[in-house]
Specification:
By secondary structure, this protein is mostly beta strands. It has five helices and 48 strands. The strands form twelve sheets. Strands 22, 23, 24, 27, 30, 31 and 32 form a seven-stranded antiparallel β-sheet that branches. Strands 34-38-48-47-40-41 form a six-stranded mixed β-sheet, with no helix packed on it. The radius of gyration is 30 Å and the shape is globular.
Length: about 675
């Protein structure tokens, strides 16, 4: 996989400019609680129309029948209602000591519907503390500002909303994508200038902006930056130093505080580059070695990858020298990998190809792990290596000039090997490793609720009339696709059976079935050679397993053995596959609401030749659940349920909807040559 043609400029971030003078913004202040009894004290803020924030709240817990209490009478008394506590309960209040928490008014009541809020004892009708809501009080709410328009590049919006202290929503945003150095950009001053802060796009990327057509997107200000620290928001082209379109941010906006959690990250090394909202790399050269620290907000089963490009002219994975860093329990790793093909490491005619450890391809691991720690959901891994290595697969870290790099974030498979990366750049990234003065544009990490959306519906084929299955390969479909269907990591590719992405199949014992296999028949190709096999192993990739691991797998179809006991596939055929269109970004696969819409966006093609044939008859010795997979690559297929009768009542029989048959019919119409 190659990236684009743009050089990403470094823009330096000053964390000090992003701190509010009085600490983080908490909402619109209502004031301090009036204290009468039981050591009640604290500050109260309005978060939005329905929510109060109590900070540094104290109460000794000695009241007999005490609750959070609110009402519309002139003063606190029995004419009021209970406000549920921070857990949503209406229990008698216990002791609080210097606590911060939010309270939501019940039954959609608004702050403007009440005149006071109190800590009130119902049995004695005593008020232990209270605060009054000022007349004509306006709680924080989403604020609409002026439209974003530009004189060039077709920039426009229907409207712009400030959602809270850190989020800006562009509604109906359009931009033609033709300015190759354009970014979302914010800063201070009367008008947009080149000095400012780059805002990650809606996916957290810091790449130059792609085109948008009437899209609604939400942007999050980076690090601890808030809407109160900026004067303008712009689409700014750094290649021409031009403001393409901008809006002025009004002062003192009455917006809710942000729910985004800011997690400070201290850079231990002098140079730091923010690669993505959730990934940064820092480094220092000392003597003949370089120390590198990778820090990323990732899940426990994810890795961070960083290294020198395989090309001197662009960011390129092929030929790259990368470190794959992760933490397994209490042990950290920063393993040296070499990339010879765009696929996880596989055997090709006895040699390892793909994303392979240096030790497997005749080299050695030259990364020396220093420290590895995981805290607040952030992996921080530091390693050291020589600037110049005697290993032919290692790239030089130059002391002069700039060098192209690559990076990625993805999941580890069942063997703690890197699977296909979910997050990666599509532009060229060039950095200077040994600048005259230290350079850093890194900022604090932020955590907000991740919304991937509903997974695509699982494909299922439960049809006693189907005896022939057509298998092709295609994209695995992001986190909504293969990963959601199987709960496994995914490679870049997956099996498509009768036009469905990795469906579950129901087959009857005693009947003969045929797979028409179109997974490629060129054993020299590490990416596109996928004979089909059936085993009791859910992961597949039988050929890449060790002899010991192979001995634990029961092969049911698709493999024969040589006189020396070496496995050989029997069902390979021409390559028929679906791919993304040239202008389509596979990082955005999760934007598709359904597999049907995703599948329609792909292009299909078939190489000349005939499909392979895998014919088999499940019998009584077969387990109830087996798996179809690739002989060479893991995690491309899924389940086969072996049943004794189609009259068995299963949840799947009820789900055998006409939609699957319809997809199959459409599939056959579009690619009838697959069954020839």
């Amino acid at each position: 996989m190659m990236f684009g043609v743009l050089i990403v400029p470094l823009v330096f971030f000053s964390a000090g400019l992003c701190q509010d003078d009085e600490g983080p913004y908490k909402g619109k202040p209502l004031g301090k609680l009036n204290s009468y009894h039981h050591q009640v004290s604290g500050d109260i803020y309005a978060v939005d129309k329905y929510t109060l924030l109590l900070t540094s709240f104290n109460y000794d817990g000695n009241g007999a029948d005490t609750f959070f209490w609110a009402g519309a009478a002139n003063r606190p008394g029995p004419q009021g209602f209970i406000v549920p506590d921070e857990h949503g309960k209406t229990n008698v209040l216990e002791r609080y000591f210097n606590k911060d928490f939010t309270l939501v008014l019940p039954e959609n009541k608004r702050i403007t519907d009440i005149k006071w809020f109190a800590i009130y004892d119902i049995s004695s009708q005593n008020t232990f503390g209270d605060i009054y809501i000022p007349e004509e009080f306006e709680p924080p709410t989403v604020q609409k500002v002026s439209q974003l328009t530009g004189k060039t590049n077709s920039i426009s919006t229907i409207s712009v909303e400030i959602l809270d202290a850190k989020q800006i929503k562009l509604i109906g945003f359009t931009y033609d994508g033709n300015a190759k150095g354009a970014y979302f950009w914010v800063g201070v001053g009367a008008q947009p200038v080149s000095k400012g802060f780059k805002v990650p796009d809606e996916y957290g990327y810091l790449d130059p902006l792609k085109s948008y057509k009437n899209r609604t997107i939400t942007l999050e200000l980076p690090g601890d930056l808030t809407i109160f620290n900026i004067d303008w928001f712009s689409i700014f082209d750094h290649d021409t130093n031009t403001n393409l379109g901008s809006i002025i941010i009004p002062e003192a906006l009455n917006v809710p505080p942000s729910l985004v959690k800011v997690i400070p990250q201290k850079d231990d090394l002098p140079n730091c580059l923010q690669l993505h909202k959730n990934f940064q790399v820092s480094w220092e050269i000392f003597g003949p070695a370089i120390t590198i620290q990778l820090a990323g907000m990732v899940d426990e089963d994810e890795y961070l990858a960083f290294g020198i490009s395989g090309s001197n002219e662009r960011s390129q994975m092929i030929g790259a020298d990368v470190a794959v860093a992760y933490i397994n329990g209490y042990q950290g790793f920063a393993t040296d990998y070499n990339i010879t093909a765009l696929t996880p490491c596989v055997k090709v005619l006895g040699q390892y190809k793909g994303v392979c450890k240096d030790e497997l391809v005749g080299g050695q691991d030259n990364n020396q792990l220093n420290t590895a720690i995981r805290e607040n959901g952030i992996n921080i891994i530091t390693y050291r290596r020589s600037l110049i290595s005697s290993d032919d697969g290692d790239k030089e870290f130059p002391l002069e000039g700039s060098v192209y790099i690559i990076w990625g974030i993805g999941r580890l498979d069942e063997n703690k090997e890197p699977a296909f990366h979910d997050i990666y750049p599509k532009t060229n990234i060039s950095i200077e490793l040994n600048p005259k003065e230290p350079q850093s544009n890194c900022y604090s990490f932020t955590r907000s609720e991740l919304q991937v959306g509903e997974p695509w519906s699982k494909g299922q084929i439960f049809d006693k009339t189907i005896r022939v299955f057509t298998s092709t390969i295609g994209p695995s479909g992001g986190k909504k696709g293969y990963q959601a269907i199987t709960k496994h990591t995914s490679t870049a590719l997956a099996w498509y059976i009768n036009g469905l992405l990795a469906p579950e199949l129901w087959l009857r014992r005693g009947l003969t079935y045929v797979f028409k296999v179109n997974g490629g028949n060129n054993p020299h190709s590490p990416e596109y050679y996928h004979p089909l096999i059936i085993t009791d192993d859910p992961n597949g990739g039988y050929d890449r397993l060790t002899d010991v691991a192979q001995s634990k797998v029961r092969v049911l179809a698709g493999v024969e053995y040589s006189r020396r006991g070496r496995p050989k596939s029997t069902a390979s055929g021409r390559l028929c596959y679906s791919t993304h269109k040239p202008d389509q970004d596979r990082r955005l696969d999760d934007d598709f609401e359904s597999f049907k819409k995703f599948n329609r966006s792909l292009t299909w093609s078939c190489e000349p030749g005939d499909p392979g044939t895998l014919e088999f008859t499940p019998n009584t010795s077969w387990p109830d659940t087996v798996y179809y997979n690739s002989f060479t690559q893991a995690n491309m297929g899924w389940k086969i349920h072996v049943i004794d009768s189609f009259n068995q009542k299963t949840s799947a029989s009820e789900k055998n909807s006409p939609s699957n048959s319809l997809i199959f019919c459409i599939f056959l119409i579009l690619s009838m040559q697959l069954c020839l």
